[in-house]
């Protein structure tokens, strides 16, 4: 559809979108072209970790854009070197490869694992992933994902992925064979409705992969960069994977992602991996600004405290309306609605000026800015509570 103001039909129609056109954002709020304000608890699916247009990121982008856009990835540039060193210095990894998207980072992780298998495990190439997992929309990452809706799409898929059950170590062990090279998972499955792997399961998985000489890959596209109260989710467990991917929050709103690996797992040779915009200095300048903010004293402590507040408020809503539990960690949470009413709640909240997400028909997902305030949480809870109150009254009348 084309209107006098906006040519909607010039974009491929790949998802249902409301007709509002957003023109400005600041912190936890967005404004559309009619000047309506929205409280955003989606934040680009956990992308805007510091909220919309944070000054630190905006200033870094503007400053770097005036100095150097890109010299091409055939040469070093200063922001990429600095960001790589900062990530290595704050993690258990030794080397970094920058990408433009989480899917590309996960694709790189798959390629790196297969390269490792060809060099060190007699050509082993199979990767054990998990039912309900989501790793991206390239053919390989869709194949690695355990999303049911992907199964009939774009056949034939990439071979070499087996699916275990989350939090079931026996289901992983029985899939290990001579061709297995790695195990890959999200510490918290986001798209399937925010289902966490337990810390104990992740420790068991680390022990199992070490016993069999397998690589362990953590997809921290959504959980990384402070989302769960630690800079990286694996820090909650006392163990570390061999490979980790980051995306979403690492750029604070710009297209930036990363593949990190230990020295043992880093086996790419010249020509194996690349990308025209990978390690772009403007994007890496944004990443440095994000890391500078998230790494400030007490920032992650505040994420934990705010996450506990949001969880408590959601539990109160659940108790008032007879809903299910709250799951997740930090500021990546889901509310179990126990009924397939999530899309309707999201639509009503949108009309009321609050942005929510329904990853499943019976669940709401909450991914606010990591610096969301108590007042903004209260505003969202009031809106949700009102919608649920009206929905309950309607059911009683019916």
Q: What's the helix and strand layout?
A:
Blueprint (H helix, E strand, L loop, with lengths): L21 E5 L2 E4 L4 E4 L2 H4 L8 H13 L10 H12 L5 E5 L2 H19 L5 E5 L8 H6 L16 E4 L4 H5 L6 E6 L2 E2 L5 E2 L2 H13 L3 E6 L22 E4 L10 E5 L19 H14 L4 H23 L4 E4 L2 E5 L5 H10 L2 E2 L1 E4 L2 E4 L7 H24 L1
Parallel strand pairs: 3-15, 5-6, 5-7, 7-10, 10-11
Antiparallel strand pairs: 1-2, 2-3, 4-12, 8-9, 11-12, 13-14, 14-17, 16-17
Helix pairs in contact: 2-8, 3-8, 9-11
Structure write-up:
- Helices cover about 35% and strands about 20% of the residues.
- By secondary structure, the chain is α/β, with parallel strands linked by helices.
- The chain has two domains: about 120 residues, Aspartate Aminotransferase, domain 1 (Alpha-Beta Complex), CATH 3.90.1150; about 240 residues, Aspartate Aminotransferase, domain 2 (3-Layer(aba) Sandwich), CATH 3.40.640.10.
- Helix 2 packs antiparallel against helix 8 and helix 3 runs parallel beside helix 8.
- The protein is globular and about 60 Å long.
- About 45% of the residues are buried.
- Its EC number is 2.6.1.11.
- Its cofactor is pyridoxal 5'-phosphate.
Q: What keyword list fits this structure?
A:
398 residues; alpha/beta; Aspartate Aminotransferase, domain 1; Aspartate Aminotransferase, domain 2; 2 domains; four-stranded mixed β-sheet; 11 helices; 17 strands; 18% strand; Aminotrans_3; amino-acid biosynthesis; pyridoxal phosphate binding; N2-acetyl-L-ornithine:2-oxoglutarate 5-aminotransferase activity; aminotransferase
């Amino acid at each position: 559809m084309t209107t006098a103001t906006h040519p909607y039909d010039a974009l491929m129609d790949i998802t249902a979108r409301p007709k509002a056109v957003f023109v400005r954002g600041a912190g936890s709020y967005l404004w559309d072209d009619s000047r309506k304000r929205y409280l955003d608890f989606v934040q680009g699916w956990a992308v805007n970790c510091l909220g919309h247009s944070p000054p630190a990121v905006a200033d870094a982008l503007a400053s770097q854009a005036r100095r150097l856009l890109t010299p091409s990835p055939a040469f070093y540039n200063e922001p990429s070197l600095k960001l790589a060193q900062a990530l290595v210095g704050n993690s258990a990894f030794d080397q970094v490869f920058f990408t433009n998207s989480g899917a590309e980072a996960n694709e790189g992780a798959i390629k790196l694992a297969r390269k490792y298998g060809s060099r060190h495990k007699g050509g082993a190439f199979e990767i054990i992933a998990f039912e309900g997992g989501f790793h991206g929309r390239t053919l390989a990452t869709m194949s690695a994902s355990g999303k049911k809706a992907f199964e009939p799409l774009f056949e034939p898929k990439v071979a070499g992925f087996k699916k275990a059950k989350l939090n079931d170590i026996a289901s992983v062990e029985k899939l290990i064979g001579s061709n297995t090279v790695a195990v890959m998972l999200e510490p918290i499955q986001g798209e399937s409705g925010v289902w966490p792997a337990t810390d104990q399961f992740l420790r068991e998985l680390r022990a199992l992969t070490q016993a069999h000489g397998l690589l362990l890959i953590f997809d921290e596209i959504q959980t990384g960069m402070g989302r769960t109260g630690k800079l990286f989710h694996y820090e909650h467990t006392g163990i570390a994977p061999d490979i980790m991917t980051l995306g979403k929050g690492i750029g604070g709103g710009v297209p930036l992602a990363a593949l990190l690996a230990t020295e043992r797992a880093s086996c790419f040779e010249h020509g194996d991996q690349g990308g025209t915009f990978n390690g772009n200095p403007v994007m890496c300048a944004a990443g440095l600004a994000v890391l500078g903010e998230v790494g400030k004293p007490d920032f992650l402590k505040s994420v934990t405290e705010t996450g506990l507040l949001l969880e408590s408020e959601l539990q109160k809503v659940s108790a008032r309306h007879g809903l299910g539990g709250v799951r997740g960690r930090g500021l990546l949470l889901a509310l179990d609605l126990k009924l397939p009413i999530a899309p309707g709640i999201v639509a009503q909240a949108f009309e009321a000026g609050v942005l929510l997400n329904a990853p499943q028909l019976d669940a709401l997902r909450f991914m606010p800015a990591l610096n969301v305030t108590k007042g903004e949480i209260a505003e969202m809870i009031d809106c949700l509570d009102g919608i649920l109150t009206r929905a309950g009254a309607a059911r009683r009348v019916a």
